[in-house]
Request: fold
Amino acid sequence: MPYTYTLTTVIPATPQEIYRAWLDSEAHSEMTGGEAIMSNEVGAEVSAWDGYITGTNLELVPGERIVQSWRTSEFTDEHKDSIVTVMLEPMDEGTLLTLIHSNVPDDQTSYEEGGWESQYFEPMKVYFAGIEQEEAATEPPEPALSPPEPEPPRASAETAHRAVPPVKVTGAKRKPRKASAKAKRGTAKPRAKKARRATPKRSVSKRTTPKRSTPKSSAPKSAARKSTAPKRAAAKRKSASRKRARR
Reply:
């Protein structure tokens, strides 16, 4: 009765690198040490280990999964093809490779008893470790970092104004004034400077207020006499009464 088993290992490479190497004829041959004919197309026939293994690509997911039918030269006509599924998962150390081998005949136990470990896993680790060393040796050395340039000394607050050179302010040139028409003809006379006149000191004199003259009445003298006649008559009467009283 056929059976199924699962094996795991860690390969020092990325999932994409393992996927490409497994499906490449030259890389698969160098990786295992036996001649291989591989393809990255679904339905293509494949072989490994100098024809000891033959099969067909059943499912291909780049960088994730490889599914192939697998039978050896020890399989009889009564044996159906076994199925090999290689799953790739990235991790810090490289790639976690999980291999599931199903539909294996009962008398074909060499796969589980160290066949995959000695014929694939260990050679694969050596192969990818060598590639990593070759890539590290061929990489150009990183350029040495040049020391940082020293910063210019900073002026203190007291001497900052001294470090700044004076700025010359150049104004726009004034246009010469246009000569008048008289100056052009030669008839313009030069202006003489006016001499300042000496202003005499003012003498302060006391003002005398003139006597106010009462305006003469414009009424006739006869009218003035008539207005004062009653008063004079009354005065005479009083003086006469006083004289009589004395007697």
User: Anything to note?
Assistant: The first helix runs from residue 15 to 22. The first strand starts at residue 3 and ends at 11. The radius of gyration is 69 Å.
